[in-house]
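Hypothesis: this fold can be encoded by more than one sequence.
Test: take the structure tokens below, design a sequence, compare later.
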């Protein structure tokens, strides 16, 4: 289980570090001291277990995406009581590329929004 203050939100960033802008969620989570998740979105059911509030970022290139994982969690009664999703639309996803300037700016904006959220 993650060690964090009980009133702090669980921040989980989704993405692929090797695919350019697909790493945006991972970078945002890193900036916020959150969890970086590159695997199957269905594994989020275990990651957010017991979380009161879990902001997230990004979407998935896997067969099952974040929306489907959330719906499955809802059906199974395993979705957090409060779930906030922040999304960043990428521009480039080529292997080995860095974040584009627009996505880098969006990562900072999302990190600021999460820090300022009640």
């Amino acid at each position: 289980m993650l060690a964090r203050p009980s009133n702090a939100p669980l921040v989980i960033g989704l993405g692929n570090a090797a695919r350019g802008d697909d790493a945006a969620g991972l970078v945002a989570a890193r900036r916020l001291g959150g969890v970086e998740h590159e695997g199957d979105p269905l594994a989020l059911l275990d990651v957010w277990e017991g979380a009161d509030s879990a902001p997230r970022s990004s979407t998935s290139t896997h067969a099952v995406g974040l929306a489907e994982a959330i719906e499955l969690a809802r059906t199974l009664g395993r979705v957090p009581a409060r779930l906030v999703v922040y999304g960043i639309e990428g521009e480039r996803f080529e292997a080995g590329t860095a974040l584009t300037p627009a996505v880098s700016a969006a990562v900072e904006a999302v990190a600021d929004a999460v820090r300022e959220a009640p």
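Residues 55-61 have pLDDT under 50 and may be disordered. The chain has one domain: 12-116.
Hypothesis status: open.
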